[in-house]
Specification:
244 residues, alpha+beta, 6-stranded mixed beta sheet, 5 helices, 19% helix
Length: 244
């Protein structure tokens, strides 16, 4: 990723999407928090959102993220903030966006740039099927032709979880045990969310070679990204996508 807009702190996603698909990640530079739910000064957040909008073709389609598996299709509905953790659209200039601070931001399109999708995937969302639910919403498109971008998120060595997380994943998908390593702390495990997401995309029909899985850790790079595991009092950066 490379910085292309200093005012809005935009980084351009590097992946296999066609030229009509635009995808970016914001940073935490100059405290560029975009979330209204983290006890930040509301006026400051709205100023940051206004700065971001200057670089976009439209107002982003903000979600009230709740770690659910709810997916909203903006194509045929009037814009409003809704409770959901993923959004899709086939319309030009609809900016789908998710906010994260350690969870996985995942973007989807296809090789002909017919649609865009943005997914917020924490461990609960991954475990319960947010990726497959999003791809189901895109039922008119062949997953073999889809491309995916997995953006900055917490790495395995930084994401320690309890045994209940391992048990929850492995009870649904026994093969998921390969994505957990025992921690030095008793009854704790290090979870590789990034590889789980890659596996879910592959299981949904995407080709591995079409998945761009950037190994950029939010907790290891707090000068660039907000990280909840680094500080629970933190902002959120955004990962966003639209078609021209």
């Amino acid at each position: 990723m490379s910085e292309i807009n200093n005012q809005a702190k935009l980084l351009q996603a590097t992946w296999l999407a066609p030229n009509n698909i635009k995808a970016y990640v914001t940073t935490c530079k100059d405290d560029f928090n975009l979330a209204l739910h983290v006890n930040d000064n509301e006026a400051k957040v709205l100023i940051n959102r206004a700065k971001l909008k200057e670089s976009l073709p439209n107002t982003p389609l903000w979600l009230n993220q709740t770690h659910s598996i709810d997916v909203v299709d903006w194509t045929n509905i009037k814009y409003d903030v809704v409770n959901a953790d993923a959004s899709i659209s086939t319309k030009s200039k609809d900016v789908c966006i998710v906010m994260t601070a350690d969870c996985l931001p995942i973007l989807l399109s296809n090789k002909t740039g017919d649609f865009v999708a943005a997914i917020h995937a924490g461990w609960r969302g991954l475990d319960n099927g947010i990726i497959s639910e999003t791809i189901k919403k895109l039922s008119g498109y062949n997953p073999n032709e889809m491309v995916a971008f997995i953006g900055p998120a917490i790495c395995q060595k930084c994401f320690e979880v309890g045994k209940e997380v391992l048990d929850s994943f492995s009870s649904k998908n026994p093969s998921d045990r390969q994505f957990f390593m025992e921690s030095e702390n008793h009854n704790k495990y290090l979870c590789n969310l990034r590889k789980i997401a890659e596996q879910r995309l592959f299981e949904a029909g995407l080709k591995i070679e079409n998945i761009s899985n950037k190994n950029i850790c939010t907790k290891c790079n707090t000068s660039w990204f907000f990280s909840y595991r680094s500080s629970c009092s933190t902002g959120r950066f955004a990962t966003l996508i639209w078609k021209e």
